[in-house]
Write the C-alpha coordinates for this entry.
Amino acid sequence: MTEVVEIWDPCVERLARLTGDRCKAKTAARKLQNLTDKIDESELTVEAEVFKAMSDPFRLAILKLLREGELCVCEIMTAFDKPQSSTSHHLSILKRAGLVKERKDGKWSRYRLSEGAVIEMMNLAGLMTGD
Protein backbone atom coordinates (compact mmCIF):
# COMPACT_ATOMS: atom_id res chain seq x y z
CA MET A 1 0.00 0.00 0.00
CA THR A 2 1.42 3.37 -0.96
CA GLU A 3 1.57 6.03 1.65
CA VAL A 4 -0.19 9.29 0.82
CA VAL A 5 2.10 12.22 1.45
CA GLU A 6 0.40 15.31 2.78
CA ILE A 7 1.04 18.27 0.56
CA TRP A 8 2.80 21.11 2.31
CA ASP A 9 -0.16 23.21 3.48
CA PRO A 10 1.52 26.63 3.13
CA CYS A 11 2.34 25.70 -0.47
CA VAL A 12 -1.28 24.75 -1.16
CA GLU A 13 -2.53 27.89 0.56
CA ARG A 14 -0.20 30.11 -1.41
CA LEU A 15 -1.15 28.49 -4.72
CA ALA A 16 -4.83 28.67 -3.78
CA ARG A 17 -4.49 32.42 -3.15
CA LEU A 18 -2.73 32.88 -6.49
CA THR A 19 -5.02 30.67 -8.59
CA GLY A 20 -8.25 31.13 -6.68
CA ASP A 21 -8.92 27.38 -6.76
CA ARG A 22 -7.94 25.15 -3.83
CA CYS A 23 -8.49 21.91 -5.80
CA LYS A 24 -6.16 23.05 -8.59
CA ALA A 25 -3.72 24.26 -5.95
CA LYS A 26 -3.54 20.80 -4.34
CA THR A 27 -2.96 19.18 -7.73
CA ALA A 28 -0.31 21.72 -8.65
CA ALA A 29 1.40 21.37 -5.25
CA ARG A 30 1.49 17.58 -5.62
CA LYS A 31 3.01 17.93 -9.11
CA LEU A 32 5.58 20.44 -7.87
CA GLN A 33 6.50 18.17 -4.96
CA ASN A 34 7.05 15.25 -7.36
CA LEU A 35 9.18 17.40 -9.65
CA THR A 36 11.34 18.83 -6.87
CA ASP A 37 11.82 15.37 -5.35
CA LYS A 38 13.49 14.31 -8.62
CA ILE A 39 16.08 17.11 -8.45
CA ASP A 40 19.42 15.85 -7.13
CA GLU A 41 21.19 18.63 -5.23
CA SER A 42 24.64 17.14 -5.80
CA GLU A 43 24.01 17.03 -9.56
CA LEU A 44 22.98 20.68 -9.48
CA THR A 45 26.27 21.62 -7.85
CA VAL A 46 28.31 19.75 -10.46
CA GLU A 47 26.28 21.16 -13.34
CA ALA A 48 26.59 24.69 -11.95
CA GLU A 49 30.39 24.28 -11.89
CA VAL A 50 30.35 23.44 -15.60
CA PHE A 51 28.36 26.56 -16.41
CA LYS A 52 30.53 28.71 -14.13
CA ALA A 53 33.64 27.43 -15.89
CA MET A 54 32.17 28.29 -19.28
CA SER A 55 30.94 31.72 -18.16
CA ASP A 56 34.36 33.41 -18.28
CA PRO A 57 35.14 34.95 -21.70
CA PHE A 58 38.79 33.84 -21.63
CA ARG A 59 37.88 30.25 -20.73
CA LEU A 60 35.24 30.20 -23.44
CA ALA A 61 37.86 31.47 -25.91
CA ILE A 62 40.17 28.64 -24.83
CA LEU A 63 37.38 26.13 -25.46
CA LYS A 64 36.76 27.59 -28.91
CA LEU A 65 40.47 27.34 -29.69
CA LEU A 66 40.54 23.72 -28.53
CA ARG A 67 37.69 22.84 -30.92
CA GLU A 68 40.40 22.62 -33.57
CA GLY A 69 42.43 20.05 -31.63
CA GLU A 70 44.94 19.46 -28.87
CA LEU A 71 47.24 22.33 -27.87
CA CYS A 72 49.94 22.88 -25.28
CA VAL A 73 49.75 25.66 -22.71
CA CYS A 74 52.49 27.58 -24.52
CA GLU A 75 50.42 27.64 -27.73
CA ILE A 76 47.28 28.79 -25.91
CA MET A 77 49.05 31.54 -24.00
CA THR A 78 50.75 32.73 -27.20
CA ALA A 79 47.48 32.74 -29.15
CA PHE A 80 45.85 35.04 -26.60
CA ASP A 81 48.97 36.92 -25.46
CA LYS A 82 48.31 35.97 -21.83
CA PRO A 83 50.79 34.97 -19.13
CA GLN A 84 51.44 31.28 -18.53
CA SER A 85 50.19 31.49 -14.93
CA SER A 86 46.84 32.98 -15.97
CA THR A 87 46.41 30.49 -18.83
CA SER A 88 47.24 27.54 -16.58
CA HIS A 89 44.84 28.80 -13.92
CA HIS A 90 41.97 28.99 -16.41
CA LEU A 91 42.84 25.59 -17.85
CA SER A 92 42.76 24.06 -14.37
CA ILE A 93 39.23 25.44 -13.85
CA LEU A 94 38.15 23.96 -17.19
CA LYS A 95 39.78 20.65 -16.28
CA ARG A 96 38.16 20.55 -12.84
CA ALA A 97 34.76 21.15 -14.49
CA GLY A 98 35.42 18.22 -16.83
CA LEU A 99 35.45 20.35 -19.98
CA VAL A 100 39.05 19.65 -20.97
CA LYS A 101 41.49 16.79 -20.52
CA GLU A 102 45.21 17.13 -19.90
CA ARG A 103 47.94 14.95 -21.32
CA LYS A 104 51.54 15.20 -20.17
CA ASP A 105 54.07 15.18 -22.99
CA GLY A 106 57.48 15.35 -21.33
CA LYS A 107 57.58 18.67 -19.51
CA TRP A 108 54.64 19.99 -21.53
CA SER A 109 50.95 19.79 -20.72
CA ARG A 110 48.69 19.36 -23.72
CA TYR A 111 44.96 20.04 -23.52
CA ARG A 112 41.98 18.93 -25.56
CA LEU A 113 38.21 19.09 -25.21
CA SER A 114 36.98 16.24 -23.05
CA GLU A 115 34.00 15.32 -25.23
CA GLY A 116 32.05 16.35 -28.29
CA ALA A 117 29.32 17.50 -25.93
CA VAL A 118 31.45 20.56 -25.11
CA ILE A 119 31.30 21.61 -28.77
CA GLU A 120 27.55 20.97 -28.79
CA MET A 121 27.12 23.20 -25.71
CA MET A 122 29.04 26.01 -27.39
CA ASN A 123 27.04 25.58 -30.60
CA LEU A 124 23.78 25.70 -28.64
CA ALA A 125 24.91 28.87 -26.86
CA GLY A 126 25.61 30.41 -30.26
CA LEU A 127 22.15 29.42 -31.51
CA MET A 128 20.50 30.92 -28.44
CA THR A 129 22.31 34.23 -28.85
CA GLY A 130 21.85 34.34 -32.60
CA ASP A 131 25.55 34.02 -33.45
Notes: The mean pLDDT is 88. The chain is about 65% helix and 10% strand. Residues 54 and 121 are 10 Å apart (CA to CA). The chain has two domains: 1-39, 43-129.
